[in-house]
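Lecture notes, structural biology module. Today: joint structure prediction for complexes of three components.
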Amino acid sequence: MNTIIFRTIAPFLAALAGLFSVFVLLRGHNEPGGGFIGGLIAASALAIYGIAWGVAPVRRAIVVHPITLAGFGVFLASVSGFLSFFAGSAFLRGLWISVPFFGTELDLSSVLLFDIGVYFTVVGTISTIGLTLEEPEVD
Amino acid sequence: METVFAVLVGIFFASGIYLMLSRRTVRILLGIVILSNGVNLLIFTAGRLTVAVPPVIPQHLPTPENIVANPLPQALILTAIVISFSLFAFLLVLSYRAFQDLGTDDVDEMRDAEPAERRLPPMEY
Amino acid sequence: MPPSAIDGTLLFALAPFVAAALGPWLTGLIGSRAGWILAIVPALLFAHFTTMIPAVAHGDVLAASVPWVSAFGVDYSIRVDGLSLVFALLITGIGALIVIYAGGYLKGHAHQGRFFSFILMFMGAMLGLVLADDLISLFIFWELTSITSFLLIGFDHTRAAARRAALQALVITGGGGLALLAGFLVLMSATGASSMSEVLALGDAVRDSGLYVPILILVLAGAFSKSAQVPLHSWLPNAMEAPTPVSAYLHSATMVKAGVYLLMRMNPALGDTALWTTILPIFGGATFLVGMILAVKNTDLKQILAYTTVASLGLLVMLTGIGTKLAIEGAVLYLIAHALFKGGLFMVAGTIDHETGTREITGLGGLRRAMPVTFAAAALACLSMAGLPPMIGFVAKEVLYDGVWQAGGLSIALLVGLVGNTLMFAVAAILIIKPFFGRKTETPKHAHEGPPSLWLGPLTLSVLALASALLLHDTTHYFVVPMASAVYGAPLSIDLHLIPTKISAPVVLTVITIASGIGLVMVFSALRAAFAGLVNGIGWGPDRGFDQVLRSLVFLASGLSDILQPGRMKGYVMITFVVTAATLLIPMWVFGEWPRFTFTWPDAPFYFWVVFAIAAVSLWAVLVSATRLIAIVTLGIQGTMVAIIFMLYGAPDLSFTQFMVEVLSVIILALVMTRLNLSPSDHRSWGTRLRDGTVAIACGAGFALLLIAVVEQPFDPRLSDFFAEYSRVIAHGRNIVNVIIVDFRALDTLGEISVVMTAGLAILALIRLRSRHRRFDPTRPDLDDGESLKEAARDA
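The predicted structure, tokenised, for the full assembly:
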């Protein structure tokens, strides 16, 4: 995969796919999409980048180790569950608030936080798998 | 239509199981992937089929307007797909490592845990 | 006795368990002196039970109960009558002495605290057993005694013999306990009673019940195993592997008597039938004789005592079986006498062992001067054991002879009793003569008197054995009459005399016993040699049988797992799918529930069929692919077709996910497969292909038929409708699938993403795991996060 064309467009493709993944994640509650799909798209974006430029740049791009992202995702999802305790309701009960945002109403919710957790878990795990396998023999 | 699906599901299961009965780890893996797809289709069909109406509520209504596809099996399958992918990846890496360490992809030759020569069980107290 | 006190007993009876919890801590604090402190608990309980004596002697039955498992009608209930009171007094009284004795005997042992804990737990269990009224709680305490006895016998668990003895005791008495449970359950279903009081009130109904025989056999199996009746007796002598306080307590005075207790307890309900009066005397008599023969044969003090205990238990079972008033009085008296002299003698044996270093009776002699207090205790105990005046043992023997004589005159039972008692006399004489009289012998340790904790127990019990005979009138009034009445099931009036008032059959029999006993003592060595020859001549016993049974079990299990777990992956997979296919197809076949096949050619657009066809063909291509490239590509194709099917049937989310996963699967599969030089195809012989194909097609057909059968059923849309209806209204989401995932069933999803993350972690761990054959290459540290480098540095 060392063609110049691929190497050149790969970062843009990856960035675009990453952006798209966030879009899919955020619209998931009302239209087809959501954390699982978004996460898979983001992971493919990283895969494209990795195939074109190798593993090390990808690792640099996401700063932390990908499994940390997965752990962060599960953590986020759990935290979103505990939020409802402050409202005195059961674990994982959805909470909604509307925030004014540049003249429009933005609906924020613990459910969205949960979905973001799912997104991170999927990105983290699948890029862990991909990066680990793409790496040349370590030992 | 469900009957046709049932036949298709049967073919998925039969192919997957035939592959899983192989001695080569890679073939077993392929079998597992196909079997997961078969299971997903089984759940999907058991929740009845509805052509081309996604379970999404229109913008202006509180509930779906007409009959939509059954959302429950879809939710089950969605997570199942991701989990079976994780399982597949794990098994792939496992067989990869097994090949590196044991030098074989033939499961009959992987006898470290259960050696072919059985020792008698301990008889003392 | 005010009624509130018996309610307190419910609580007090559990005190030994509390003491058991404190035992190790207290021992850690003050060492072996903890024995004196811990003994306060049973001593107080003993005092508590003595307050009940007048009421019980008056004929009252004290009872109290609290619900335990109300759902199953199980209560924690106690019932104190003459029988259970005597047992409770023996358990707590001897228990207190034993705890003190153990303080001295195990002084300095690393696990003395643990020992206190075990023995107090046992005490609690035994007390619960004899007090229990509810049948299920009786069973629970019964099994608890088996378990605690397992712990106590295996106390010295570094020795294989102790482990074997513990296991044997657990298998036999625990197995018997299960039979007892079955018996109780049958009894409960036959009579509707759930407590002993109810069962006793229903005596005739039980005996006339059609289930009487199974009830009797199951209850007897439990009682006989616990009370070491032939052929289940071998665990008791082996249990001598336990420290001596255990033998003195469990294997003479208390636990082994649990079976006898049960027989006595149930005598009013189950007894007095032809079966009862036949089985019990036969087994009891056989046990009596076998036990005595083995006791004579052995030379180890504890073994001798153990076998005489087996014999005594046989005698008790025999007397309970005969079941006449006098026989039961004899049994009651003998039970009390035996607990007093045997408990004491065991402690004496332990003291001798402790102070001289040996228990071999042939290697002991002349200890009379070195250990005067122990000698005094032993002498009194042996007098009682031999059945000589003025001890309680003498009274017991008089009454039991009288009972057997009046029940059947010159019968086999009488002969058995005579022979057994004669041997018992001889053994008792040898037990006192050999170690204490004669010439002083050299022993491993220099013999001297033990500390007070070691002689207090035996001396107290022996003095009691004397006092109870001297104060026979009170003994009879307060203990024997209430207990015998409870066993007999009707009030009895008993008049006993220490000194026989007239020449009667018992007196004659006693004279014969003593005379021939003295004769046997003269020729004891020859007798021992003869019995040893007899036993060795037979060569096989239940003890060896136990080994054989256990070994065959292990062989059977090993053979079975060789078949079920052949160690070949294909075998496991094969079994799984053969069973799956059978599970799917056989019920349909047996119950004739094949789908109805109301098949109409579906009206689907042309491209639907194309998708199905491509999916089927790509599956076929995966099966027959000759190169790994074809395998990977065709695998991708079938997955993509599944994605398209999802799309066609209104599942865009699924379709998209499936598609992404398919792409990623192909990528990682290609990554790995290019690294390994593997052939993706396998060469199966035609026979194997036929077999595998049959299984695969059977499974596939099974699932297809199942699915057809499922969709033929009317669809229940309640759940799906619920989600559709409320998705927007209460969860504010229009994509119902997503709302289910992240809101309605978010807990499931949380679990699922945890699984996904764990899979990632496992993969990482697998890759990082260093191979057995390769080493980390320090020239390429950039490829790793530095973890391996650090590891390598550490290793170096």
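Point to remember: Chain A touches chain B through eleven residues (CB under 8 Å).
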